[in-house]
Amino acid sequence: MASPKVAVVGAGVVGLSTALCITETCPSCSVTVLSDQFSPNTTSDVAAGMLIPHTYPDTPIHRQKQWFKETFTYLFAISNSAEASEAGIHLVSGWQVFKSTPKEELPFWSDIVLGFRPMSEAELQKFPQHQFGQAFTTLKCDCPPYLLWLEKKLKATGTQMYTRKVSDLWDLHSEYDIVVNCTGMGAHQLVGDKQLFPVRGQVLKAHAPWVKQFIRDGDGLTYIYPGIHSVTLGGTREKGNWSLSPDAGTTREIFDRCCSLEPSLQGAQDIEVKVGLRPSRQCVRVQREVLSQGRVKFPVVHNYGHGAGGFSVHRGTANEAAHLVGECISALHGSSSRAKL
Amino acid sequence: MRVAIIGAGVIGLSSALCIHEQFHGLVPSLELEVYADRFTPHTTSDGAAGLWQPYLSDHGNLQETLWNKETFDYLLSHLHSPAAKEMGLFLISGYNLFTEPVPDPSWKNIVLGFRNLTPKELGLFPGYSYGWFNTALMLEGRSYLPWLTNRLMQRGVKFFHKKVESFQEVSGDGVDVVLNCSGMCAGDLQPDPELQPGRGQVIKVLAPWLKHFIITHDLKSGIYNSPYVIPGSEFTVLGGIYQHGNWSEENSAKDHKSIWDSCCRLLPALQKAKIVGEWSGLRPARPSVRLERESIRLGNLQAEVIHNYGHGGFGITIHWGCAMAAARLFGSILQEKKQLATPPGPRL
After folding, report:
1. CATH number where B17 lies
2. Distance from CA of B271 to the nearest CA of A (A)
3. B231–A212 C-beta distance less than 8 A
């Protein structure tokens, strides 16, 4: 097979970064991205894009750590280059505060982010309701810029991108040799994965350019993440809630919670409300599968179910998915050689 | 009692506010008047980025370190107040970079979370092998000075736009105390060879992805002669010029190139930043701040002058500690005047 044709379904951060990794590891591949939505209308566009990992209960910690490390290293290099502002990648420092000291004071990622240390007494005084805290510096991927930058890099490799709703992976088997499923929440319908469930997140994006530090409550519900042009104020984690409509009461409540952590937010302007469904799963599904109908085989690589941790591990899982695509190609070569005998 | 304040930069306005807050209740006749040839946004304080950070070494000047601490603590206590945004006050973290190890600064325990940089962090800044990280405060003059002005106007303080040529000019006419907060122009009122300009130039750019201040140090060239990048609420300040004895307030093309090239080398992403302005100003530099009383005799009149000038490149950093000290000097003047008004001897 001279030029394997690979279709990547999904154009969020996972789909685009996976497509990019495939072009890097398999330059002879012809990669096409298919998605019903592109930036600024993907789930990724709602997310703040902070590199603070979410812990997946059923993925081994060493694997999650590897994914995060690869992602952090990749983005760190971009943040330090001339492309940083175009790619929307920047360093941000701040605090994660806890109302009561957590069982695990050192998360698995503490040696990957920069300058991780417990907060001092003087710093904690700013948070009278919180007993304990961690200070560190991490990276933020602002969307749309990051997704647009990925799209630009893909176009430069000759990757085509089409707006297309894929309702059945088999629909693609005549045009493509391998399909990569990066459909996020869409996998629930597309491949019938009942282990995938939405965790609804509502956020506010506000103009408050004096906010230079992030603040996150360790319970994950309240957070303030300063981006390039707006500050993301969050949020909610509503398991099983499929609604994409903003809720006014929730907006007020998020705003109040954030103002109690950072009172100057009272002066924030131009508040926009956004909703995204975190495509959640007990473990991220990065896995090969071979679909078959009769004697026709269609290799699939799944890369979905990143839930609240998409940005934190996207490049690591993209690398792994690209590697699996490589395995699919080898398998196809193997079977086509057998067919020649 | 009439008090004339000469100068409407951060020092003049904060000293005026501090004195009014402390004494207007005790001295019902207290009248404050601010005289200046320049008001916000045309003062030296308006051009400064507004980062709270003293120089690396206090040269054993413990008094100044205490005034710096007083200022930081005062500002920190206002961080959560509704006024913070209007004051232009917010937290910011960042990096101080060196090419060799240096002793910890006098302010390491004043700022929040002071620590050395890790090797990974230093990897961000090729050419620098040592450094600090800490969280400090920004107090933007463009917001703080109008805020101070509003507070003063609410209190009935009067403002006069005029260039004061001598202490006599304001002190005749029934003014009892003169506060000399004239910064770079103090030499016009009373010669002071120790006061010299420390000329600075800055380029203002739009770089909203930058969330940290970065201050590099070249121990051989001296303070502020090495690139620095300070993100504000509306734009980012690029600087790295300190020219002792240079009185020019004109922007220099040579200095522009030096700032631009060195800052872009430090942060390659700045090449994409849009330039929105440029400014030059004179830091009123002095071996130490002049904060003291002086009695000036003018014919048969005597006026008390409180000098409060010579804050170099750390005016915003030290302003409140100095304002409080000036207020204490004012208090002692009041006490002396009261004593003179009280009849001598015990009351029978």
Report:
1. 3.40.50.720
2. 7
3. yes
Q: Is residue B147 part of a domain?
A: yes
The string of pLDDT tens digits covering residues B284-320 is 999 999 999 999 987 777 889 999 999 999 999 999 9
Is B51 one of the annotated binding-site residues?
A: yes
Q: Do A263 and B231 touch (CB under 8 A)?
A: no
Residue A256: give its domain's CATH number.
Answer: 3.40.50.720
The rounded average pLDDT for each run of 10 residues, N- to C-terminus, in chain A (341 residues) is 92 98 96 98 98 96 98 97 96 97 93 97 96 98 97 97 97 97 97 97 98 97 98 98 98 98 96 98 97 94 98 98 97 69 42
Please tell me the total count of domains within chain B. 1
Of B81, B115, B208, the CB nearest to A229: B208
Round to whole Å and give the CA distance between A197 and A281. 7
The residue length of chain A stands at 341
Provide the pLDDT for residue B347. Answer: 46
Domain containing residue A53: 5-339
Structural domain of B296: 1-50+140-194+287-347
Distance CA B210, CA B233 (A): 11
Pair B326, B18: CB distance under 8 Å: yes
Question: How far apart are alpha carbons A299 and A331 in whole angstroms?
Answer: 9
Q: Is B253 a member of any domain?
A: no
Out of A81, A84, A92, closest to residue B211 by CB: A92
Best B209, B214, B229 member to test A by mutation, with max A CBs in 10 Å, is B209
Minimal-distance CA residue of chain B relative to A229: B208
CA atoms within 13 A on the CB side of A331: 16
CB contact under 8 A, A120 and B118: no
Mean pLDDT of B272-279: 97
ipTM value of the model?
Answer: 0.93
For B209, the closest of A82, A90, A266 (CB atoms) is A90
Q: Per the CB < 8 Å rule, is B233 touching A86?
A: no
Nearest C-alpha of chain A: how many angstroms from B236? 11
Is B49 annotated to bind a ligand? Reply is yes
- The single residue listed with the structure tokens 């008004």 is B341
Whether residue B101 lies inside any domain: the answer is no
Q: Is residue B275 part of a domain?
A: no
By C-alpha distance, the chain B residue nearest A84 is: B269
The reported pLDDT for the residue numbered A337 is: 58
Q: How many residues does chain B have?
A: 348
- Buried b / exposed e across A273-293, counting CB within 10 Å, b at 16+? bbbbbbbbbebbbbbebeeee
| Closest by Cβ to B115, choosing from A115, A122, A126 | A115
Number of domains in chain A: 1
